[in-house]
Structures are given as structure tokens and as C-alpha cells.
Amino acid sequence: MKLKPITIVEIILATLFVVSHFLKDAHIPFMGLISALSASILSMVYLAGGLSLVSYNVPNGNSYAFGFAFGLSIIALLFKFQKWPFGVPYLVMAISALLLLVIIRAVAVLAKKPQVLPFEKGIIIRYVLLIVLLVYAFLT
Fold this sequence. Notes:
The chain is an all-alpha fold.
């Protein structure tokens, strides 16, 4: 299976964000800066590259909504992990946005056809990972 360039960049940045966050807690120098930079770039990739996350036969509004919700989620995680003010309200907004998109997408898929397309599997994987991270960050 050949990965898209945005998927490779996404995997690298997400791994760098999570690893640098855990190394920051181990008090290794500059890991907070690397965590903040990688999260910022990852959220920009999601916001600007929302069209590349899904296939091109999907309406643009859906892909922009995916990109906005994913970017908002990454920024919420950044605020919470860095212990900046308003981290919890961002987490609540991000969880709400993701759950709203999950509900809208599930209704649209079930009303149209019961099968799940390949690009929707990739979006579902991203949804699940982000919601698990957001709930974990909210509860800690």
C-alpha cells in the first residue's frame, strides 16, 4: 500500500509531537519547544491539507470540516500538554467538534449506503486516535 505524502508527513509530525511531549516530562531540554512546533505544523497541515486527507470525490465542505476539527484537536492537545491557560475549554470544543462530525458522517453514510469507503476508514482511524487522546488529556 502506497502512502500519500501528506500521510507520511502526518505520521512523522504526530510521532514527533507525542515523543517530544513524553521527553519533555522527563526534563530533556528543548522538548517543549519541539512539541509545540510539531503540533503547530501538524495542525497547519490538517487545516491546509484537509482536501488531501480524503479522496477527491468528496465535497469540499466535508474535507474542510475534517481539517478544521483535526487542527482544532491538535491545538487543544498542545494547550493541555503545555499546561497553557484555556486548555480544558479547547479540549471540550475539540471533543464536541469531533463527535459532531462523527454523528453527521455516520448519518450521511447510513442514509446513502451501508458500506464504508476506503477513505472513510482512514478518517475513522484518525477520529478514534484523536478522541482517545483528547479524552485522555481531559481526564488527566
